[in-house]
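4.2 Preliminary Data

To establish feasibility before requesting continued support, the project team ran the inverse folding procedure on a target of 89 residues. The structure was first converted into the token representation described in Section 3, and no sequence information of any kind was made available to the design step. The complete token record follows.
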């Protein structure tokens, strides 16, 4: 199990040095998978205000991951970072 966590941590570090900045949709996917992997399902008690567009987009992206296991979210995150790392700019 720790192999997955180690690989995940490595992917998190790698994501900060990608060859080119991913588009907003991809960034939201990375964010939501990271949050799901590290914190689990989002707390829906406190949704952001409707005029805080960035927070709302992050909230919605994370909400879509609801029910995804931490391991599954880690694997998806690792795959996405690997794809992004292999893209040439």
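Position-by-position output of the design step:
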């Amino acid at each position: 199990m720790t192999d997955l966590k180690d690989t995940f941590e490595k992917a998190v570090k790698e994501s900060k040095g990608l060859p080119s900045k991913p588009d907003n949709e991809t960034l939201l996917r990375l964010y939501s998978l990271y949050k799901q992997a590290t914190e689990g399902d989002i707390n829906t008690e406190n949704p952001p205000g409707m005029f805080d567009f960035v927070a709302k987009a992050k909230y919605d992206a994370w909400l879509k991951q609801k029910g995804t296991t931490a391991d599954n979210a880690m694997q998806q995150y690792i795959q996405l970072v690997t794809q992004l790392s292999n893209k040439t700019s």
